[in-house]
Amino acid sequence: MSTENATQGRFARVIVVGNEKGGSGKSTVAMHVALALMKSNQRVATIDLDSRQSTLTHYIENRYDWVQHIGRELEIPDHLYFTENTNHPTAEDEAADGKAFLDIVEERTGRYDFIVIDTPGHHNYVGRLAHTVADILITPLNDSFVDLDVLGTVDPETLGVTSPSHYGQMVEAARQQRRLRDNVTADWVVLRNRLSMLNSRNTRNVGECLQKLSQMLDFRCVDGLAERVIFREFYPRGLTALDALDEVILGTRPTISHVTARLEVENLLSALGLGGLSANSEMAGASRAAA
User: Cβ neighbours of residue 15 under 8 Å, at least 6 residues apart?
Assistant: First the structure.
């Protein structure tokens, strides 16, 4: 796939948020990354490949409805919900879906700076294909051995990693395909979401396994988003931690939780290499108001 921007002579960067396990926070991360880029004056398109759950699509629809309700302008990415031909695809169906998906990405590389793709929490052909076009792959991972299982196999006695698991192997193959085709190695970042505030033995053991896997599979491991109620409260209104800490926009008075969530997301974006949003007077004012 050619990614050259024919109109601007630029390249659109493709960010894929992937993990073949549900409940890891993929859509929350995808939404926050897309909005952060838009707030940095980037042109952003989003694609939802999860035809079962459609969480990112619903998230953006909620944002659109909330904008209409409050009568204020908020950034909304150019979104596309991709549907597969059938739930039981033949090889021909998969080929048709794959071509349609690549055509969509190709067309958007000429009009946007970034394309953010949210993939399903299960194995499917188009989701796997999306990994082969990623410039940046973000894998949110809950901080537990249950979720670690998608990346690596763990010895039950030593709790040490013995080998890469199914998703790790798939990503390895997808990155190899990208290198051979475009001479590009996707930057793979694993986010440790829902980290406990306590330095528990489980946290240390999972961290040690991730450290070994990062060397085996060549990814960076960074702290993601904590288990905060505030992130779940953003969803019905389509909001993010990066939206203005304004009572009309939030639908409630800003609190310390809003400020803390915003700092957490900004730290995450900086770790991803997508920083640029810094603490400002608006945030400082909200901190004082929430105190």
Answer: 33, 114, 115, 116, 117, 134, 135, 136, 137, 138
Q: Which helix or strand (DSSP H or E) is residue 72 part of? A: none
Distances (CA, A) of 123 to 19, 22, 171, 219: 9, 11, 12, 20
* CATH number for the domain harbouring residue 207: 3.40.50.300
Amino acid at 226: A
3-state secondary structure at position 155: coil
Structural tokens at position 42: 């980037």
Contact (Cβ atoms closer than 8 angstroms) between residue 48 and residue 80: yes
Name the DSSP class of 117. Answer: E
Into how many domains does the chain fold?
A: 1
256: tokens are 């310390």
Q: If we measure between CA atoms, which residue out of 101, 80, 94 comes closest to residue 123?
A: 94
The model's pTM is 0.88
Structure letter (DSSP) for residue 224? -
- 148 in a structural domain: yes
Taking only the tens place, the pLDDT of each residue in 196-217 is: 655 678 788 888 999 999 999 9
